[in-house]
Amino acid sequence: MEFQQLLERIVQDDGTHAKWLNTLSFMENAGARKISKCEHPVSVTLIQLKHAAEEHRHAYYLKKQISKIDPELCKTYEADELLAPVATRQYLHSLDVKACRYLQTVFALNKEELKYAAYLFVTYAIEVRADELYPVYQDILTKESSRIMVKSIILEEEGHLEEMINQLNEFSADWKQHAENILTIEKELHDEWINAIAEEVSQLDYA
User: Fold this and answer.
1) For 20, what's the count of Cα atoms within 13 Å in the CB-facing half-sphere?
2) How open is the CA angle 44-47-21, to the nearest 5 degrees?
3) How far is CA 25 from the centre of its chain?
4) What is the pTM of this model?
5) Among 166, 137, 172, 171, which residue's Cα sits nearest to residue 151?
6) Is the separation of the CB atoms in 194 and 91 below 8 Å?
């Protein structure tokens, strides 16, 4: 099932759509928490604080959108309120672990430097993915005349991507080569996540 077809199917069922929004909210919240975890105790940058705050806001915004479907749905991030909960919880964590492993082999970094490098490259990979995911989702929402919208998130994620590129340019002259390797790692994990969601959705009865 292609990603667009998967989303088209998801938005047709209120309960599944609420879980999808909740799953995206969980991912944004997990991303915000990881950004905060990567902060240097004293040398945290303004951009890092901005990113963490905005990712937290995205998590809140997506969670709030669920009330347009049914305010009683998906009040927590419990497994039964997420799509493919195991794959969802593993996705960002696995990307972080594998990216750190890779970065440690190509750069001579101490603990704090590795945390910052992971913040740069992992966030870049996630922003590239968000730049693909949210516009497809918004197009489907528009086509379905849905009350739910993610346009504001799209604009902020585009800004984040630009900011990450600026920071990566300062970090390393050959960052693009390493970013490509991180993107390859991310794609594999993303495909596993989407396949797990597709498998779960395909088992639902839409009749």
Assistant:
1) 25
2) 110
3) 9
4) 0.94
5) 137
6) no
DSSP 84-117: SHHHHHHHHHHHHHHHHHHHHHHS---HHHHHHH
Task: Count Cβ atoms below 10 Å from residue 165 Cβ, excluding itself.
Answer: 15
Q: In a structure prediction context, what are the per-residue pLDDT tens digits for the chain, which is 207 residues long?
A: 689 999 999 999 999 999 999 999 999 999 999 888 888 788 888 888 998 999 999 999 999 999 999 999 999 999 999 999 999 999 999 999 999 999 999 998 998 899 999 999 999 999 999 999 999 999 999 999 999 999 999 999 888 899 999 999 999 999 999 999 999 999 999 999 999 999 999 987 554
Distance CA 102, CA 202 (A): 35
The one-letter amino acid at 71: P
Tokens 């498998």 belong to 199
Q: What gap in Å lies between CA 95 and CA 101, rounded to an integer? A: 10
Question: Alpha carbon 17 to chain centroid distance?
Answer: 17
